[in-house]
Design a protein that fits this description.
The protein has about 400 residues and is an alpha/beta fold. It folds into two domains: about 140 residues, Alpha-Beta Complex (Aspartate Aminotransferase, domain 1); about 250 residues, Type I PLP-dependent aspartate aminotransferase-like (Major domain) (Aspartate Aminotransferase, domain 2, 3-Layer(aba) Sandwich), CATH 3.40.640.10. The protein contains 14 helices and 17 strands. The protein has a seven-stranded mixed sheet with strand order 2-9-8-7-6-4-5, with helices on both faces. Strands 11-12-17-14 form a four-stranded antiparallel sheet, with helices on one face.
Length: about 400
Amino acid sequence: MLGTTRSYLDHNATTPVRPVVAEAMLRALQMQGNPSSVHQDGRAARGAVEQARGRVADLVGAKPANVIFTSGGTEANITILSPSLSDCSGARDCVRAPASLLLHSAGEHPSVRDGHRFPAGRAEEIPLDGDGRVDCAWLDERLMRFTADAPSERALVSVHLANNETGVLQPMAEIVAIARRHGALVHSDAVQAAGKIAIDIGSLGVDALTLSAHKIGGPKGVGAIVLRTGALELADKPMRGGGQERGWRSGTENLPGIVGFGVAAEEAGRTLSGEAIRLTRLREQLEERLLALAPDAVLFGAKAPRLPNTCAFATPGVKAETALIILDLAGVSLSSGSACSSGKVKRSHVLAAMGVDPAMSEGALRASLGWTTCEADIDQFIAAYGQALAANPKRAVQAAA
């Protein structure tokens, strides 16, 4: 029977829009000017865009002028991950060729793994260890060989701050230091990390990071590229036309979406420290009760630093698709750690890169918490997962106990 209330534990897929965001977007929908128009209505719309730009910049410690709005995190990644990306921060860099090799982690989102614009053979994966962290020694050695073979060229390294499936945080300080030592540019997909951990692009040291509004309580369909300095240049910008967003992304701005993004960023920044503590407590409660229910369950990436809201797990003998159906009927929204295509479940590329046994990865589930999550949601999940365990004949006795 369908649950009378729903427990939404899929915030890494998308986070419900905050009421204050929806209210701001409704007001923006009623603004009649085009942000590019010079009359009063246009200037009012432009002011709303720039206010949002400042709020998004504040969330990641950037300058507002270095925030470029896009249609989402995917477009942001596709745009920045180009062999035409170059850095003109100094005379030496200006004469260097644009990026000719992309090195991205094996656990990246598909918009990085498959969406980048480097030609075949010019993109390579950085291996992960068993905890889901990149192999920094491999990265150092590969960049050393690259610079020795092509001293006049430069590489682009792309590693996300946090993995969307496991929540594992990457050793960005070490990654950036290695990249700098070999003259490489660095991009980081911060879509899952933003609003969950503190981010300062200057301290982080990456050249660019990418964001998405709907992961922080904002609307779907709006994201951003954030540059550390204004020195990055991109010769082949995909969206050309009217020259909006300093020519990086032409097209009339999505005013309501951008306004909503700005308010969501402000709210995420304001509540960041308290939410991190609260969500960590809830996640730990979920994991403790999960292991009490199924002592043989495996928590992926649990030995590495993780986002405070993410728990990726599997229980031997329990298939993800079966568990998801039972959970959904019990009113619990969760995600599988696997990607689905044409109705067929494929093994998670993240877990494969971590060396997880295929049989175990077939049961991978992800619970991701957010601003709407409370203890009652954890209670409902545990009760529902107990039903999923009991539905497996081999585990019925254990689940009943």
